[in-house]
Design goal:
The complex is a heterodimer of chains A (283) and B (238). In chain A, 80% of the residues lie in helices and 0% in strands. With 283 residues, chain A is mostly helical. In chain A, α5 packs across α8 (149-174). Chain A is flat. Chain B has one domain (2-229): MetI-like fold (Orthogonal Bundle), CATH 1.10.3720.10. Chain B has helices at 2-6, 16-49, 53-68, 71-91, 102-128, 131-139, 144-174, 186-197, 200-229. The longest helix of chain B is centred in the N-terminal third of the chain and has 34 residues, at 16-49. Chain B is flat and about 70 Å long. Classes of the chains: A mainly alpha (283), B mainly alpha (238). The interface between A and B is large, with 49 and 50 residues.
Chain lengths: 283, 238
């Protein structure tokens, strides 16, 4: 008996800890998966073939610098609107959660207005609507601002994103557990200190992911500026297409947009990993 | 003020009936995109959730592309690119000139975008369903289809509805983009009205109000649906 069990023991130790996986069967899911991947591969190959065979040196030297300058306009537009929007969003979010009925319903109306209507309609309202009030705007010395398509787009985007960011911030602040407030009060911290030193840092971590999504939405939404003749990436693309009828330029623009969004997504993942390091269980 | 309101009159003197027509196109476009987007999004979510890595990867490529592209660019690529592809295809047989219908182009583009986002919502909902539910279904001897129909779907709808409601509101707003490819939706007819009357602020404000109304009605309707699918759920005693 003993010898037998010993031999069984040695047999066990010889077998590696991880049992060999059975070979994956060629079932429907696997076949579909490979077929789809091959299809994507073919699409990609066709696209590359199309871009290479249709490559025109003249066209490239003429329009590539323009697309690049459009790219910078897009980056600028998005960065400035996100920052200004964030600055406006903060008081709006505070007003939204304040116990004052009037304040909170005003903030709700503001948020609802910007989230409930299309960005395109808002841009039209500001850009073309401002033209109608030219005399009034001139008299208060703001006409130079609303005359430019670029600043109108900036203005609208900032207000629009402030509505979304306010809502994100409100949700984040409210989802910090009550116990955090109570704990801070028990320590004798007063409200302002509790809010800024205890609640807000935690809220920002909760808001991080939706905020990243909002920036991505803004990058995509900023293409709308091209409709009111702002020459951002999309605007330059449309201009190039209308002059040359070269469809390729849209593909280039698509690749650039995908690139921007993907880069931002990766930066955001890293940022989140760094900022939430202290929350990860130790391994 | 009366003068401005007069501009909204029905009939040949005012723009009320034109705006109503545009509103109808907007709603129709959103409503006809919805079923395609939902079904496609659901299958993509199933693919992403599959244990087969090849299938999941193929589905992830789809979402990466259509979530990352600006909606406007997707629309242009579908509209102009579809035109080129279709024309070349038709040229194989005859040399008639074909034109892509802007309603269909809008529908295709919005479906691509909507399904990419919906697949993420469905995926989250699929993962929220406890594994034991599916195992219990297996233990009861339910077929694959019955498990899907009677165990997974009813719970899936409950988990996915808040996310899908948001996407519907986004879809309603995104329809405004088709005005740029000359589909007579609400925003384009507003543009036309502005061109004729030189009252941009008033008309765009009216258009914004109409969009707000649409989303208000949707919110009420979606709230009703949410209460309906949660009817069997016990309320938390919070």
């Amino acid at each position: 008996m003993i010898i037998e069990s010993r031999s069984a023991d040695t047999a066990l130790t010889e077998v590696s800890a991880v049992p060999a996986q059975p070979p994956r069967p060629w079932n429907g899911a696997r076949i579909t998966g490979y077929v789809l991947l091959v299809l994507w591969g073919l699409c990609g190959a066709a696209l590359i073939y199309y871009l290479i065979t249709g490559f025109d040196q003249d066209f490239f030297t003429r329009y590539a610098p323009r697309l690049l300058s459009g790219f910078w306009v897009t980056v600028q537009l998005v960065t400035i609107s996100i920052v200004i929007g964030g600055v406006i969003a903060f008081p709006v979010a505070l007003a939204r959660i304040s116990p004052n009925r009037l304040l909170s319903s005003l903030a709700f109306g503001y948020i609802y207005l910007f989230r409930g209507t299309p960005l395109l309609a808002q841009v039209f309202l500001v850009y073309y609507g401002a033209g109608q009030f030219r005399a009034e705007l001139e008299s208060i010395g703001l006409w130079w601002f609303f005359r430019e398509a670029y600043s109108c787009a900036l203005f609208t985007f900032s207000l629009n994103t402030s509505g979304y960011q306010a809502e994100i911030l409100r949700g984040a602040i409210q989802s910090v557990p009550r116990g955090q407030w109570e704990g801070a009060h028990a320590l004798g911290l007063h409200n302002a200190v509790t809010f800024f030193k205890v609640i807000l840092p935690q809220a920002f971590i909760i808001a991080l992911r939706p905020l990243g999504n909002e920036i991505i939405f803004m990058i995509k939404g900023s293409a709308i500026a091209s409709i009111i003749t702002v020459f951002d990436l999309m605007g330059q693309t449309r201009l190039a297409f209308s002059r040359s009828f070269e469809f390729q330029v849209y593909i280039w623009a698509a690749l650039i947009y995908l690139f921007i969004v993907e880069v931002l997504r990766r930066i955001w993942d890293r940022l989140e990993a760094v900022l939430t390091k202290h929350l990860k269980p130790m391994s | 003020m009366d003068e401005l309101l007069g501009l909204l009159a029905w009939g040949p003197t005012g723009w009320g009936d034109e705006l109503a027509d545009g509103l109808k196109i907007t709603v129709m476009l959103a409503l006809s995109t919805l079923p395609f987007g939902l079904v496609l999004g659901f299958f993509i979510a199933l693919a992403k959730n599959a244990s087969e890595p090849a299938l999941a990867r193929a589905a992830n490529i789809y979402t990466t592309i259509f979530r990352g592209l600006p909606e406007l660019l997707t629309l242009f690529i579908v509209y102009y690119g579809g035109q080129i592809v279709l024309q070349q295809f038709v040229n194989l047989f005859t040399d008639t000139y074909v034109e892509v219908n802007s309603f269909v182009a809008g529908m295709v583009a919005l479906t691509l975008v909507f399904s990419a986002f919906a697949s993420e919502v469905f995926l989250g909902a699929l993962r929220a369903i406890a594994k034991g539910q599916i195992e219990a279904g297996m233990a009861l001897g339910l077929s694959r289809w019955s498990r899907m129909r009677f165990v997974i779907l009813p719970q899936l709808i409950r988990y996915a509805l808040p996310g899908l409601s948001n996407l519907w509101l986004v879809l309603l707003k995104d329809t405004s983009l088709v005005s740029i490819i000359a589909l007579n939706d609400l925003l384009r007819l507003t543009n036309i009205a502005v061109g004729a009357t030189k009252e941009p602020f008033f008309f765009y404000a009216v258009a914004c109000l109409l969009y707000l109304t649409l989303s208000l009605i949707s919110s009420i309707g979606l709230g009703g649906i949410e209460r309906y699918v949660n009817r069997g759920e016990q309320r938390g005693r919070a």
